[in-house]
Amino acid sequence: LAPGSGATMLTIDRMAGATLSLFAAWVIRESQKLPLGTLRQPGPSFFPLLLALLLLIFGVAIAATGGRAQSFRSVGWKEVPHACGILAACIFSALALERLGYRLTVFLVLLFLLKVVERKGWLPTASFALALSFGSFYLFYTLLRVPLPIGPLGI
Amino acid sequence: MAETLQNLHAGFSVALSPNVFLYAVVGCVIGTLVGVLPGIGPLAGISLLLPASFGMDATSAIVLLAGIYYGAMYGGSTTSILMRIPGEAASVMTCIDGYAMTRKGRGGPALAIAAVGSYAAGTASVVALMLLAPPLASFALRFGPPEYFALLLLGLLALAYMSGGAIMKSLAMASLGLLLGMIGIDPMTGFFRFHYGLVELGDGIGIVPVAVGLFGLSEILLTAGQEKPPAVIQPRLVELLPSREEWRDATWPVARGTVLGFFIGIIPGSAHIISSFLSYAVERRLSRHPERFGHGAIEGVAGPESANNSATSGAFVPMLALGVPSGPIPAVMLAALMVHGISPGPLLIQDQPELFWGFIASMYVGNVVLLILNLPLVGLFVNILRVPYPLLYPAILVFCVLGVYAVNGSVVDLWIMLVMGALGYVLRKFDFETAPIVLGVVLAPMLEMSFRQSLAMSSGSYAIFLHRPIAAWMLAAGLALLLLSLAPIFVRSRKMIAWREALGLSAKIGKGDKP
Q: Out of B194, B225, B456, whose CB is closest to A83?
């Protein structure tokens, strides 16, 4: 068969099916660490094992029947750098929220997203970040009593 | 009947007294504000404001809390439609077509239909609650673990069935969601499953971080980096309201959603969550143009939103008539009543007629207040979309972080949202639907629990699922749906293909979800 023909091409379905199957296989292995029980009295790993087996079957079926799906190479990934920037901001939020407090964390996240990722000017960036971080804190923490973390500097 | 109307009249005189009416309005306003924020859903809103109701009389307290409940349910649909961020599991189906409508500049009509559908469903289901509460409550009690297991399985299979050509992908996603729902402490044996040292996972993966990640964050990741950012939509006033055709298309879905939602809502055990999923499946199945679903079909907003709201009223049936809460929210309301020395149950109507009928009447009032508040606000909410996307998405991201963190005050939830956002991004790139994952995560603990409880009831005999008529019928219906879904994979006759194409089942839902 010629390269790129339906039977040999790496398609999104084959890729996804294979990944799901691998994940299912890993869950099956992990499930063995827990008691399985019996058919009449299922244990804690009975359901996860059953579901992982189902996922394995579906994953294999998707991969096996996915020869005619869109090719993996044709999927556009142009937004990946942008998406990585946003994910980095999320990771920072998770790491900093309880250490720096809500207001400072949100201020820094917005500063990064607007200045570095979106390349906005300093003045709109700083004013937007300041207004949103302090404004949302006032609305939800002060008015609606939603518990939000306060950092070591008291902000 | 005459006695019921007389009682209702007395109830309205309570609900429309200035003091109680004010609490209904305040409750709806707070609920809408709270519901707009992802994560702070009705349960968190009611729980946060429960202590504030202790100083009130019982009628005012329950009216305030019910107002928050309705308001939050409606507020959740606003973010689902405008930003693809479901405030809670019940709003997930609204995201699909509601957001697709917003992308087409029809966010206003989607919000208006959601408001009117919620109002119609809420009002109709209150009538049903008033007339049918005692007999329905005794029917609901016939739902034991086997019936519950059968219903949940039927819900999952109905979702797979509606996905048409992509059944393998839908079933794989549902299995993945169910697997994620297995994380946490096994309630039957106490074993801690798949926790990897994280104590916070004891209660399992929260539905809010999963839904916000898979829908909200993945949308931001896909859209923000596009070479051409989404256009700033500036709708004209006339475009804020649905067209005559949209009203017509939405009428029957609202009616069907109302009936479906009410009957599912009365079943104890949080089954009301699947009402919006089932309503979406039914509407797509009955539509003459099912290929429009996922691309902005107004029926895909009207049906689930009505079912969702109707189930809210249905959930009060077992609470008021039997004193059995059908989910966490009625449980909190029950606690609020008990704080005031009132025990809901069969004698509530006799012992506290003022409270019971005042509560029923305040539900009518609450629905009207919500409609009056929200229809004029449609224009205001849609104006959010005038903000350029490079400024809008950082703000949405901040509210996602705030909302997800506020649910449990845990950073672990933020990490879950992050992982789910990345997963949702990749899955949508690979043309997979993410709604079945959310449904799987919601249903997994209930499905497993009811299955194992059923076997415990029957000393391990699987015949219990066949000996109980309701469970047997539902399992048979589920099996039929599964066979119908799988048939085209094995039977490739032209007649079958033509039939499926006529029903729009060859095209799978959610193509419109792709960027």
A: B225
